Amino acid sequence: MRYTDEQIKTFMSRTTYELELQDPKPILQDLGVDYKEIGYNSYRMNLRGEKTPSAFISLKNGKWKYTDFGDRTKSGNIINVVMDATQKDFKSSLNYCLTGLKCKNYLDEALQTKTTATYLSDKDKKRLKALKQENQQKEKSHTVSKVLNTYDVSTNQLAVDYLRSRGITKIPPNFKVITGEYENRQGDIKKVFGVGVLTQSGGADIHFLKKIGDLKTMSFGEKDISFFKNPSSQKVAVFESKMDYAAAY
Questions:
Q1: How confident is the model at residue 64 (pLDDT cuts 50, 70, 90)?
Q2: What is the DSSP string of the chain?
């Protein structure tokens, strides 16, 4: 049986789609990757021995997508995570993921059955639709969090001392002490505070004065950028983090 390039592409696309619907946790565990669950829909991974891990595989539009903020050339899905973590080639990484996540290889199945049909069976359609809907619900059910109150850094000596220890003695006017609350995975409501900035959508991004376990920062509300106008300048300065902004100020 000889397949056209278009048929092969369709079979491979089906396989990749099914892989991207699967929770990648079993693969991360089997690889021994240093990872941490972020809420219900994301994993932060340390793939390069970084002090602060910058790679994530997260649910986006119902599928698990990989992004490495430390190296923008690296992205994709769980196959690419395996390639970057192990230096395996694409085919080896694909087979490793298919086995670990118990997914169909639609091209192999077609070769074995000698079928030329590239459409999904009704059974597979229902199964994949249900899995995507489950992912979309999980994507929406992010940890509940909100900002409770904010006040000037100068009114909190602990915050002033913390920033001074980081070499920040001139405090930006948009930098605040922020208190927020969030719901943990057990459903308990927790309160925390730190120094940080409010976002455009009414949330906040804070840095704890003291780490909570391995956690140094936290976002509240909808994730968004912070934007501060400067009437004295037409230039735009972009910072990766709130602490970079404070240091530059």
A1: very high
A2: ----HHHHHHHHHHHHHHHHHS--HHHHHHHT-EEEEETTTEEEEESS--SS--EEEEEETTEEEEEETT-TT-EESHHHHHHHHH---HHHHHHHHHHHTT---HHHHHHHHT----SPPHHHHHHHHHHHHHHHHHHH-PPPEEEEEEEEGGG-HHHHHHHHHTT--S--TT-EEEEEEEE-TTS-EEEEEEEEEE-TTS-EEEEEEEEETTEEEEEESS--------TT-------SSHHHHHHH-
Q: How far apart are CA 45 and CA 71, in angstroms?
A: 13
Quickly state the pLDDT bin for 211 (edges 50, 70, 90).
Answer: confident
Written as one string, the DSSP assignment of 172-218 is: -TT-EEEEEEEE-TTS-EEEEEEEEEE-TTS-EEEEEEEEETTEEEE
Q: Are strands 42-46 and 34-38 parallel, antiparallel or unpaired?
A: antiparallel
Please give the residue range of the domain that contains residue 76: 5-140
The last residue of one of the domains, among 140, 175, 201, is 140
Q: How many domains does one find in the chain?
A: 2
**Is the CB of residue 225 less than 8 Å from the CB of residue 202?**
no
pLDDT at 239 over 90: yes
